[in-house]
Amino acid sequence: STDVPLTGSNSQDLGIRITNNPLERINFTTTDIRGDSTPGWDVELYRNGTLVDLQVVAENGRYNFEDVQLFINDNDFELLFYGPQGEIREETVSVPVNRALLSSQNHIYDVSLSLTDKQTFRQIDSGDEDTNTLHAAGRYNFFVGDAFGFAGFRNRQVDGENKLYLAGGLTNIWNGYFIDTNIGVDDAAEIGTELGVRKSFGTLDWSATAELRTDEFTPEGGTNPSVFSFNTVANSPVPDWIGKNSRINTGYRYDEFANGDFLQNTRMAYSTRIGPFQVNNALRNERSELGGVKREELQNSTNLRGGYRKLSWRAGMTYDFKPIKEVDEYRFQLGYRQSNKLSGEVNFRHDPATRFSETRLSGNWTHDKFRLSPFVEMDNQDELFAGVNVSFGLIDTPDDNIPAMTSRSLNNRGIVTAFVFLDENGNMVFDEGDQPLEDVIVESVNYKRRVPTDEDGKAMIVDMPAYIATDIHVDTESFPEPFMLPAFEGMSVMARPGELYDLSFPIHYAGEMDGTIRVLERGGHKKQGSFVHVQLLPLETERNKVLYSRGAEDGFYVFSLIAPGRYYLVPRADDVRKFGAAQPIPRLVEVGYDGTVLYGHDIELAVAHKNVPFVVLDEEMAASMALRPVADRSQATPEYFINIVQDDSSRLLKLFHNLRLKKYAEVFLVGLQKFEVVESETQKIVTRYRVPDHDIEEAFWRCSQMVKHDLPCQVEAVLPPSIGAVSDELAMIDADI
C-alpha cells in the first residue's frame, strides 16, 4: 500500500496500486528495508561495513528492518543472506537523500486500494478482526517554493473501527540542514507531529527525529500508544587504533507511552578490519518501565566475518551483563568453495543456558539447472539427521513451450532475457540475413551480473533484485569483431518478482572516415589546417550521437566506430575563425550498415570568402515558426531553402532593400519558388526560396552571391518527419557558423 507518514505503516496487502513515482521509497527520515527471501535464512544489514541489525527470515518469507535512520546525501546499505546449505547472497540498497531526490518528486501521485493483510492463500486464520477489510491510501507530492510538500490520506479499519487519517508535510534543505516536518490528524481530531533534522559535519553524519502525539492518536492500533519519542544516530570514521577502515555508530532512542511507561535504548557499535577479519562489536543498553515493572538489559554482541582465498568464515558471540551475566550463544560457520559449482560448509551453534550444541556439515554441487545439497546434522542429545536437498527454479520463457530450469534462486527476483544479433539491414528486427552472436556479454550495470550469450545469441539473467532500477547493456569488448557497435547504449529495467523482461540488442557494423584539412589563403596558396577539430553531427539524433575528431599537425583527421546513419561534416567554428576563414559548406555523408569506409573527405577553409549562416530545423519547428510551408513529406533527405531577411522598420529602408533584392535576385535567385512571410515576433519580412533537387551546394553558392552584395541571406535545412527532431548541436550550427 501507499506510504503516507503518520497514518500507519504501509502493509503488504492484496490489491492495486497506481503511481507515476520512479522511486520505491519516498520517506526522507527513516526507511524500512524489507523484502522476500527463503524462510529460515539469516539476514545481516550493514551500513558502511558496520552491522546495523540481523534477523531470521520469517515463515512467510519476509524480512523487515524497520525505521532505519537515514543521513543526508548517500545512504548505502549491504544485505547479506546466509542459507542453511552454505548459500551466501548479497544485495545492496541505496537510499539517497538530497536536493536531486526532492526535485524528482514534483507532481507525483501514489494511490492504492487493497484488502488489509489479505493473502492469496492462507491455511490458518490469523484471528485479526481487521484482516480482509478495505484499505485505501493516497498521496500527492508538490513544491511550495523551494520546499517539497505532500498531502495524503489513509482510510482503513483499526481495532475493528473504521478510521480516516489525513497527513501533510514539508521538506527542505536550509544551510546544510535537511529538515523534514510532518503532521497527521484522524477523524476524531487526534494529532501526531514529526520533526526530523539531518546534517553532515565533515565525515560525521548525524540524524535526529522527534515525534509528539495525543493520547488517542493510534494509526497502528493498540490502547497505549507512544505519545513522545526521540531518536538520534551518528556515524563517523575514527582513527585506526586497531585494524583499518574503522567506524563508530552511536544511537539513542526514547519512547514515552500514554500511561506513563517508557522505553530507553542506547547503542554503540564499532567496526574495523583486522587482517582477513571484519570485526563488528555492538554494546546495547535498554532501560524500561512497562506495566509498573522496571527492567534493565546490558548486552554485548561480537561478530566476525571474512575470507581468504577459497575459505570464508563467520563467527559470533552474545554476552549479557544485565540482568544476568551469561553468554547467550556461540556460533561459528566455516565455508570452503572449491569452485563456483562445488562448495562445503560446517556450522556450529552452542547455547550455554540450555547446554545445547548443534553441528551441521553440508555440501553443495551446482548444475546449470539444479542444486544438489547433501547434509548431516548432529547434536549433543544423540540425535542425528541426514538428507539431500534438491532445489531448482522453472522459468516460462517466451520462445519455448517447455519451461527452462535453473539452479538460481528465483524468490523475489525478476528475470531478464536478452537476444543479441547482427542486424545486417538496420531495421532493428531479426529477419532474413541477420545472425545471432555468441559469447557476447550481457551485463546488469547497477546490480553486477555478467552472462554470455549462447549459440542462439540468447542470455538470461535470472536473479535481478526486485524494485531496484538497473541498466542492461552489452559489453562491446566481447564483440566478435572490433568494428561493431550496439544500435543503442542499453535499457533500464525495474524488475518485479516473477516478471520476465525480454530484450533485444541489434548490433551493427561501424564505419570509418578520414580526410585532410587545408586552408586556402588569398592568392590561391594552400597550407595545412593544423589541429582543427571536426564534428560529425547526426541527422538521426534519436539514435546516434555527435562524434568529434581532432586533426593532426598535417591536417589529417580520422573518425572510427561511426554508427550507421547520415551526418553533417563540419569543422568547429572557433578553429575556423583562428585562420580568418569562412565555414565551408556542411557536407552530408552517409554510413551504411555494411561498415562503410569513407576515404579522402578533405575540407577546405577559404580565407577570402564571406560566411554564409546555416540553420537546421525539423518539420515541427519550421511550421511553428510560420516562416515557410512544410517541406516535401515524401522525401527522406533534408530540403534546403534560402532566406532573405529585411528590416521592415521604415518605408525608406524597405524600398532600398527591395530595389537591391530585385536587382540581384534576378541574377542569382532566378527560377526558384518564392514565398514571403512576416515573422510574428520580430515583424521582419522573410523572403524564402526553395532550392530544387535537395542541392545544398547550389543553395550555398546562390546565398554566397547575395552575401557578397550585403544582402542578409542564410541557408536553411528542413529535416523531413522520417529523420526526427533536431538535436541541440544541429540547431546551433548557425551560431557556430
Helix content: under 10%
The coarse silhouette is: elongated
- SSE class: mainly beta
Q: How much of the residues is beta strand, in percent?
A: over 45%
Mean pLDDT: 84
Helical element count? 7
| Gyration radius, rounded | 35 Å
Q: In angstroms, what separates the terminal alpha carbons?
A: 56 Å
| Number of E strands | 50
Largest sheet: 19 strands, antiparallel
Point out poorly predicted stretches.
Answer: 621-634, 725-737
List the helices and strands and how they pair.
Layout: E1 14-19, E2 30-36, E3 42-47, E4 50-56, E5 62-69, E6 76-82, E7 88-94, H1 99-103, E8 108-115, E9 134-144, E10 147-158, E11 161-174, E12 177-186, E13 191-201, E14 204-213, E15 226-237, E16 244-257, E17 262-274, E18 277-290, E19 293-308, E20 311-322, E21 326-337, E22 342-351, E23 356-366, E24 371-379, E25 384-391, E26 393-395, E27 404-406, E28 413-422, E29 435-436, E30 441-444, E31 449-452, E32 458-465, E33 469-474, E34 484-486, E35 491-494, E36 500-509, E37 511-520, E38 526-528, E39 533-538, E40 547-550, E41 556-562, E42 565-571, H2 573-578, E43 587-591, E44 597-598, E45 603-606, E46 614-618, H3 619-624, E47 639-646, H4 651-668, E48 673-678, E49 685-690, H5 696-708, E50 713-719, H6 728-731, H7 733-736
Parallel strand pairs: 28-36, 37-44, 37-45, 46-50
Antiparallel strand pairs: 1-8, 2-5, 3-4, 3-6, 6-7, 8-9, 9-10, 10-11, 11-12, 12-13, 13-14, 14-15, 15-16, 16-17, 17-18, 18-19, 19-20, 20-21, 21-22, 22-23, 23-24, 24-25, 26-27, 28-29, 28-32, 30-31, 30-33, 33-35, 34-36, 37-38, 37-41, 39-40, 39-42, 42-43, 47-49, 47-50, 48-49
